[in-house]
Amino acid sequence: MVCLTGTGCGEKEPKSSSGKLSTKKKVQPETMEKSAMSLDEALAKRRSVRSYSDEPLTNKEISGLLWAAQGETNKLHGFRTSPSAGATYPLKIYLLSKGVLSLYNPESNSLEVVREDVDTARLARDCLSQMFIAGAPAVFVLTAVYGRTGGRYGARGERYVHMEAGHAAQNLLLKATALGLGGVPVGAFDDDAVSRTLTLGATEKPLYIIPVGHERK
Ligand SMILES: Cc1cc2nc3c(=O)[nH]c(=O)nc-3n(C[C@H](O)[C@H](O)[C@H](O)COP(=O)(O)O)c2cc1C
User: Fold this and answer.
1) Which atom of ligand 1 lies closest to the CA of 47?
2) Nearest to 177 by CA among 214, 134, 135, 131
3) Going by CA atoms, what residue is nearest to atom 13 of ligand 1?
4) 152-199 pLDDT, tens per residue?
5) Ligand 1 centroid, distance to 48 Cα (angstroms)
6) Domains in the chain and their CATH numbers?
7) Which residues line ligand 1 (CB under 6 A)?
8) How far does CA 21 lie from the centroid of its chain?
9) pLDDT digits (tens, 9 = 90+) for 111-126
10) What is this structure's pTM?
């Protein structure tokens, strides 16, 4: 699991009372990778990228991408970088890197390891065998808990959740472009197969899979 603290990466992993490695990692937005690229330039340059070099993403780049997608930007109300219908925030975002699946917590700005044995090639097969997904150093998975928005808006909540996934994905893709990275939003996959591969909860549905890396030229 990558260390996202920016300052403590060279330190020993903290241990819990059980002696196991701590699975919580702080993401510090202040240490995230910022970009000098203008929004207009990122909009003009964004292109779907499906071939990646072996170069891993830095912790700062990962922090920046997670923050762009769902970072909390207002502590008082819990508002985030992406808009949300009625601020119901139905989306969850995971990072899958080197078989380790971690869930981003926007409130505490932390990543929590969920599983350490995810087969990324299996995930790629779940996506109608789009095997380039397995070649990405980082794969972001956007899921939704529909009930959070449906509880307030009824059937129309489903539409709102899908709109939100688009907002969050575009934020992430523009940030990737601004950092000199490339990614692609993948919507073609077998929902049930992806849920099984990632062992998602019963109330949670996968909506977007976004591999990101340095483009292999
Ligand atoms: C809802 C949605 C689903 C998509 N699903 C896939 C996909 O499963 N695999 C893929 O390679 N690209 C996928 N794409 C990316 C499109 O193929 C791509 O955006 C399109 O070819 C235009 O190219 P551009 O993104 O470089 O502008 C998807 C895009 C959208 C908006």
Assistant:
1) 26
2) 214
3) 186
4) 999 999 999 999 999 999 999 999 999 999 999 999 999 999 999 999
5) 7
6) 49-213 (3.40.109.10)
7) 47-48, 50, 130, 184-188
8) 23
9) 999 999 999 999 999 9
10) 0.90
